[in-house]
Amino acid sequence: MLLLLPVLPTPEFWITLGNYVGLYSIVAIGLVLLTGVGGMTSFGQAAFVGLGAYSTAYLTTQFGLSPWFCLLVGLVITMASAYV
User: Fold this and answer.
1) What is the pLDDT of residues 29-77, one digit of tens each?
2) What are the sequence ranges of the domains in the chain?
3) Could you tell me how far CA 3 lies from the centroid of its own chain?
4) How far, in Å, are 13, 15, 33 from residue 9 at the CA level?
5) What's the CA gap between 67 and 57, in Å, rounded?
6) Is 34 exposed, middle or buried (CB count within 10 Å of its CB: 0-12, 13-18, 19+)?
């Protein structure tokens, strides 16, 4: 059924809700891996999530680029700052 969802006429609310569920689940899985499996407490993860979200939103709104492309650029920016 989920494979047919992009083909069927889907309400915009479902798409928006699915985006929120996907984004929040990525953050929650990261927190579970860090605190539950690793047993560590880190407040830096919220900063990296915020940096990725801000850079993606900024590039999308200011330059009018595709949000999917800007998401990849935001990931690269966040990975580079985490590496440094």
Assistant:
1) 887 887 777 677 777 778 888 999 999 999 999 999 898 899 999 999 9
2) 12-41, 43-84
3) 22
4) 12, 11, 36
5) 8
6) middle
d(CA 40, CA 35): 5
65 near 80, Cβ under 8 Å? no
Q: Which of 59, 50, 58 is nearest to 81 (CA)?
A: 50
Q: By C-alpha distance, which of 41, 42, 51, 44 is closest to 75? A: 51
| 1 pLDDT tier (thresholds 50, 70, 90) | low
Name which residue leads in pLDDT, 59 or 10: 59
